[in-house]
Protein backbone atom coordinates (compact mmCIF):
# COMPACT_ATOMS: atom_id res chain seq x y z
CA UNK A 1 0.00 0.00 0.00
CA UNK A 2 2.92 2.28 0.82
CA UNK A 3 4.45 1.69 -2.60
CA UNK A 4 1.18 2.45 -4.37
CA UNK A 5 0.94 5.70 -2.44
CA UNK A 6 4.48 6.55 -3.45
CA UNK A 7 3.85 5.76 -7.11
CA UNK A 8 0.65 7.77 -7.05
CA UNK A 9 2.52 10.70 -5.53
CA UNK A 10 5.18 10.52 -8.25
CA UNK A 11 2.51 10.28 -10.91
CA UNK A 12 0.73 13.37 -9.56
CA UNK A 13 4.03 15.27 -9.49
CA UNK A 14 4.68 14.22 -13.10
CA UNK A 15 1.25 15.40 -14.17
CA UNK A 16 1.83 18.74 -12.45
CA UNK A 17 5.24 19.12 -14.12
CA UNK A 18 3.64 18.32 -17.46
CA UNK A 19 0.87 20.86 -16.85
CA UNK A 20 3.40 23.52 -15.88
CA UNK A 21 5.41 22.84 -19.03
CA UNK A 22 2.29 22.90 -21.17
CA UNK A 23 1.29 26.27 -19.63
CA UNK A 24 4.78 27.67 -20.30
CA UNK A 25 4.67 26.54 -23.95
CA UNK A 26 1.24 28.19 -24.34
CA UNK A 27 2.55 31.42 -22.76
CA UNK A 28 5.58 31.43 -25.05
CA UNK A 29 3.38 30.86 -28.11
CA UNK A 30 1.12 33.75 -27.04
CA UNK A 31 4.18 35.98 -26.53
CA UNK A 32 5.52 35.02 -29.94
CA UNK A 33 2.18 35.82 -31.54
CA UNK A 34 2.08 39.16 -29.68
CA UNK A 35 5.59 39.97 -30.92
CA UNK A 36 4.58 39.17 -34.50
CA UNK A 37 1.46 41.36 -34.26
CA UNK A 38 3.47 44.18 -32.70
CA UNK A 39 5.95 44.13 -35.58
CA UNK A 40 3.14 44.14 -38.15
CA UNK A 41 1.32 47.03 -36.42
CA UNK A 42 4.55 48.99 -36.06
CA UNK A 43 5.42 48.44 -39.70
CA UNK A 44 1.97 49.65 -40.84
CA UNK A 45 2.17 52.70 -38.56
CA UNK A 46 5.57 53.63 -40.00
CA UNK A 47 4.61 52.94 -43.56
CA UNK A 48 1.76 55.45 -43.81
CA UNK A 49 3.73 58.63 -42.98
CA UNK A 50 6.66 57.31 -44.98
CA UNK A 51 4.53 56.82 -48.08
CA UNK A 52 3.54 60.48 -47.87
CA UNK A 53 7.21 61.54 -47.55
CA UNK A 54 8.15 59.45 -50.60
CA UNK A 55 5.24 60.97 -52.50
CA UNK A 56 6.34 64.54 -51.74
CA UNK A 57 9.95 63.71 -52.63
CA UNK A 58 8.78 62.34 -55.98
CA UNK A 59 6.79 65.52 -56.54
CA UNK A 60 9.92 67.62 -55.92
CA UNK A 61 12.03 65.49 -58.28
CA UNK A 62 10.85 67.40 -61.33
CA UNK A 63 11.50 70.80 -59.72
CA UNK A 64 14.35 72.99 -60.85
CA UNK A 65 16.64 72.71 -57.81
CA UNK A 66 20.42 72.90 -57.61
CA UNK A 67 23.36 72.40 -55.28
CA UNK A 68 22.66 71.75 -51.62
CA UNK A 69 18.91 71.39 -52.10
CA UNK A 70 19.34 68.84 -54.87
CA UNK A 71 21.81 66.89 -52.73
CA UNK A 72 19.53 66.98 -49.71
CA UNK A 73 16.54 65.82 -51.73
CA UNK A 74 18.48 62.97 -53.24
CA UNK A 75 19.76 61.85 -49.80
CA UNK A 76 16.25 62.02 -48.36
CA UNK A 77 14.91 60.03 -51.32
CA UNK A 78 17.52 57.28 -50.81
CA UNK A 79 16.86 57.18 -47.07
CA UNK A 80 13.11 57.03 -47.49
CA UNK A 81 13.32 54.27 -50.09
CA UNK A 82 15.59 52.27 -47.84
CA UNK A 83 13.08 52.62 -45.01
CA UNK A 84 10.30 51.43 -47.31
CA UNK A 85 12.39 48.33 -48.12
CA UNK A 86 13.03 47.58 -44.44
CA UNK A 87 9.34 48.03 -43.60
CA UNK A 88 8.18 45.85 -46.50
CA UNK A 89 10.63 43.14 -45.42
CA UNK A 90 9.43 43.41 -41.80
CA UNK A 91 5.82 43.04 -42.93
CA UNK A 92 6.69 39.96 -44.96
CA UNK A 93 8.76 38.56 -42.08
CA UNK A 94 5.84 38.87 -39.67
CA UNK A 95 3.46 37.38 -42.24
CA UNK A 96 5.57 34.29 -42.88
CA UNK A 97 6.29 33.94 -39.15
CA UNK A 98 2.61 33.95 -38.18
CA UNK A 99 1.43 30.46 -37.19
CA UNK A 100 -2.17 31.65 -37.65
CA UNK A 101 -1.47 32.15 -41.35
CA UNK A 102 -0.16 28.78 -42.59
CA UNK A 103 0.84 27.94 -46.17
CA UNK A 104 -1.95 26.66 -48.38
CA UNK A 105 0.11 24.26 -50.51
CA UNK A 106 -0.35 23.87 -54.23
CA UNK A 107 1.91 22.38 -56.92
CA UNK A 108 4.50 24.99 -57.89
CA UNK A 109 6.53 24.56 -61.08
CA UNK A 110 10.00 25.63 -59.94
CA UNK A 111 11.19 25.90 -63.56
CA UNK A 112 8.65 28.68 -64.11
CA UNK A 113 9.60 30.31 -60.80
CA UNK A 114 13.29 30.17 -61.76
CA UNK A 115 12.58 31.78 -65.15
CA UNK A 116 10.65 34.56 -63.41
CA UNK A 117 13.49 35.08 -60.92
CA UNK A 118 16.09 35.32 -63.72
CA UNK A 119 13.88 37.96 -65.34
CA UNK A 120 13.48 39.85 -62.09
CA UNK A 121 17.19 39.92 -61.26
CA UNK A 122 18.51 40.44 -64.80
CA UNK A 123 18.96 44.21 -64.48
CA UNK A 124 20.95 43.88 -61.25
CA UNK A 125 22.98 41.01 -62.75
CA UNK A 126 23.77 42.97 -65.92
CA UNK A 127 24.86 45.96 -63.84
CA UNK A 128 27.43 43.76 -62.11
CA UNK A 129 28.33 41.78 -65.29
CA UNK A 130 27.21 38.54 -63.69
CA UNK A 131 25.65 35.81 -65.80
CA UNK A 132 22.85 33.83 -64.20
CA UNK A 133 21.61 30.58 -65.71
CA UNK A 134 19.19 27.81 -64.81
CA UNK A 135 20.06 24.12 -64.96
CA UNK A 136 16.90 22.03 -64.86
CA UNK A 137 15.97 18.49 -65.91
CA UNK A 138 13.59 17.79 -68.81
CA UNK A 139 10.81 16.78 -66.41
CA UNK A 140 8.93 19.47 -64.44
CA UNK A 141 10.23 20.01 -60.91
CA UNK A 142 7.12 20.52 -58.80
CA UNK A 143 7.32 21.70 -55.22
CA UNK A 144 4.37 21.73 -52.86
CA UNK A 145 3.87 25.22 -51.49
CA UNK A 146 2.95 28.85 -52.01
CA UNK A 147 4.13 30.18 -55.41
CA UNK A 148 4.77 33.76 -54.23
CA UNK A 149 6.71 32.64 -51.19
CA UNK A 150 8.85 30.19 -53.18
CA UNK A 151 9.47 32.94 -55.74
CA UNK A 152 10.72 35.08 -52.86
CA UNK A 153 13.07 32.32 -51.65
CA UNK A 154 14.67 31.88 -55.07
CA UNK A 155 14.86 35.60 -55.82
CA UNK A 156 16.50 36.37 -52.46
CA UNK A 157 19.11 33.66 -53.01
CA UNK A 158 19.85 34.73 -56.60
CA UNK A 159 19.97 38.43 -55.79
CA UNK A 160 22.39 37.71 -52.92
CA UNK A 161 24.55 35.59 -55.24
CA UNK A 162 24.66 38.53 -57.67
CA UNK A 163 25.31 41.15 -54.96
CA UNK A 164 28.05 39.20 -53.22
CA UNK A 165 30.11 38.20 -56.29
CA UNK A 166 32.78 40.09 -58.20
CA UNK A 167 31.92 41.26 -61.72
CA UNK A 168 32.42 38.61 -64.41
CA UNK A 169 31.42 35.67 -62.20
CA UNK A 170 28.51 33.39 -62.89
CA UNK A 171 25.62 32.10 -60.85
CA UNK A 172 23.84 28.79 -61.39
CA UNK A 173 20.35 27.96 -60.24
CA UNK A 174 19.98 24.17 -60.29
CA UNK A 175 16.70 22.30 -59.92
CA UNK A 176 16.20 18.60 -59.34
CA UNK A 177 13.86 16.07 -57.85
CA UNK A 178 15.26 13.79 -55.14
CA UNK A 179 12.70 11.18 -54.12
CA UNK A 180 9.92 12.87 -52.16
CA UNK A 181 11.80 16.16 -52.19
CA UNK A 182 12.75 18.80 -54.71
CA UNK A 183 16.14 20.47 -54.45
CA UNK A 184 17.04 24.00 -55.49
CA UNK A 185 20.69 24.97 -55.48
CA UNK A 186 21.95 28.51 -55.89
CA UNK A 187 25.69 28.35 -56.58
CA UNK A 188 27.92 31.38 -56.84
CA UNK A 189 31.64 32.01 -57.24
CA UNK A 190 31.43 35.04 -54.99
CA UNK A 191 32.96 36.34 -51.78
CA UNK A 192 32.01 33.29 -49.72
CA UNK A 193 30.99 33.39 -46.06
CA UNK A 194 33.27 32.78 -43.06
CA UNK A 195 32.41 29.97 -40.64
CA UNK A 196 31.77 32.62 -37.97
CA UNK A 197 29.29 34.53 -40.17
CA UNK A 198 27.57 31.32 -41.28
CA UNK A 199 26.27 30.81 -37.72
CA UNK A 200 24.42 34.13 -37.67
CA UNK A 201 23.44 34.29 -41.34
CA UNK A 202 19.73 33.59 -40.91
CA UNK A 203 19.26 36.00 -37.98
CA UNK A 204 17.20 39.16 -38.52
CA UNK A 205 19.29 42.20 -39.51
CA UNK A 206 22.56 40.25 -39.67
CA UNK A 207 25.00 41.59 -42.25
CA UNK A 208 28.53 40.33 -42.71
CA UNK A 209 31.43 42.37 -41.36
CA UNK A 210 33.27 41.61 -44.63
CA UNK A 211 33.85 45.15 -45.99
CA UNK A 212 33.25 44.21 -49.66
CA UNK A 213 29.92 42.61 -48.74
CA UNK A 214 28.76 45.50 -46.54
CA UNK A 215 29.31 47.89 -49.46
CA UNK A 216 26.30 46.25 -51.16
CA UNK A 217 22.83 47.57 -50.31
CA UNK A 218 20.67 45.39 -48.11
CA UNK A 219 18.47 45.17 -45.03
CA UNK A 220 19.85 42.00 -43.47
CA UNK A 221 16.33 40.55 -43.51
CA UNK A 222 16.48 38.54 -46.76
CA UNK A 223 17.85 35.29 -45.39
CA UNK A 224 15.69 35.51 -42.24
CA UNK A 225 12.68 35.63 -44.58
CA UNK A 226 14.06 32.74 -46.66
CA UNK A 227 14.61 30.62 -43.53
CA UNK A 228 11.07 31.21 -42.25
CA UNK A 229 9.46 30.46 -45.60
CA UNK A 230 11.45 27.25 -46.03
CA UNK A 231 10.70 26.16 -42.44
CA UNK A 232 6.95 26.74 -42.77
CA UNK A 233 6.98 24.67 -45.98
CA UNK A 234 8.50 21.77 -44.05
CA UNK A 235 11.78 22.15 -45.94
CA UNK A 236 15.37 22.84 -44.92
CA UNK A 237 18.41 24.81 -46.05
CA UNK A 238 22.00 23.64 -46.34
CA UNK A 239 24.97 25.89 -46.97
CA UNK A 240 28.42 25.11 -48.36
CA UNK A 241 30.59 28.17 -48.43
CA UNK A 242 34.23 29.06 -48.35
CA UNK A 243 35.66 32.53 -47.98
CA UNK A 244 37.02 33.77 -51.31
CA UNK A 245 35.64 30.80 -53.26
CA UNK A 246 31.87 31.06 -53.30
CA UNK A 247 28.72 29.73 -51.78
CA UNK A 248 26.06 27.13 -52.50
CA UNK A 249 22.69 27.48 -50.79
CA UNK A 250 20.70 24.25 -51.10
CA UNK A 251 16.98 24.30 -50.34
CA UNK A 252 15.00 21.08 -49.96
CA UNK A 253 11.24 21.25 -50.19
CA UNK A 254 8.48 18.66 -50.26
CA UNK A 255 7.65 17.61 -53.83
CA UNK A 256 4.11 18.02 -55.12
CA UNK A 257 4.15 14.61 -56.79
CA UNK A 258 6.76 11.91 -56.93
CA UNK A 259 7.98 10.87 -60.31
CA UNK A 260 9.33 7.37 -60.84
CA UNK A 261 13.11 7.68 -61.09
CA UNK A 262 15.28 5.86 -63.55
CA UNK A 263 12.41 5.20 -65.93
P1 LIG B 1 21.19 41.51 -47.08
O1 LIG B 1 21.64 40.93 -48.37
O2 LIG B 1 20.03 42.42 -47.22
O3 LIG B 1 22.31 42.10 -46.28
P2 LIG B 1 20.55 38.79 -46.23
O4 LIG B 1 19.81 38.34 -45.02
O5 LIG B 1 20.03 38.38 -47.54
O6 LIG B 1 20.63 40.36 -46.11
O7 LIG B 1 22.05 38.30 -46.11
C1 LIG B 1 22.76 38.52 -44.89
C2 LIG B 1 24.25 38.63 -45.13
O8 LIG B 1 24.75 37.36 -45.54
C3 LIG B 1 24.63 39.58 -46.24
O9 LIG B 1 24.75 40.89 -45.75
C4 LIG B 1 25.94 39.01 -46.73
O10 LIG B 1 27.00 39.49 -45.94
C5 LIG B 1 25.80 37.53 -46.48
N1 LIG B 1 25.45 36.77 -47.71
C6 LIG B 1 24.22 36.38 -48.11
N2 LIG B 1 24.27 35.69 -49.26
C7 LIG B 1 25.56 35.63 -49.61
C8 LIG B 1 26.29 35.04 -50.72
N3 LIG B 1 25.67 34.36 -51.70
N4 LIG B 1 27.64 35.19 -50.73
C9 LIG B 1 28.28 35.86 -49.74
N5 LIG B 1 27.67 36.43 -48.69
C10 LIG B 1 26.33 36.32 -48.61
Automatic annotation (TrEMBL):
Upper classification of the organism: Bacteria, Bacillati, Actinomycetota, Actinomycetes, Propionibacteriales
Name of the protein in question: histidine kinase
Signal peptide boundaries: none
Domain (Histidine kinase) ranges: 41-257
Intracellular or extracellular location(s): Cell membrane
Superkingdom field: Bacteria
Annotated transmembrane regions: none
Amino acid sequence: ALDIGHDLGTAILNVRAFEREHRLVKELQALDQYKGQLIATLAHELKNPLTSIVGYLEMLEGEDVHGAVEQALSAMDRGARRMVRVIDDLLLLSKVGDPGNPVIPQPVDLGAVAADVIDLTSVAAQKRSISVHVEAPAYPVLASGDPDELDRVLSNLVSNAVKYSDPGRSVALRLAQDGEEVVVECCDEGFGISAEDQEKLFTEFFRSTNPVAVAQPGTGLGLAIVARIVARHGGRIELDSELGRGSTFRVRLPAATSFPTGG
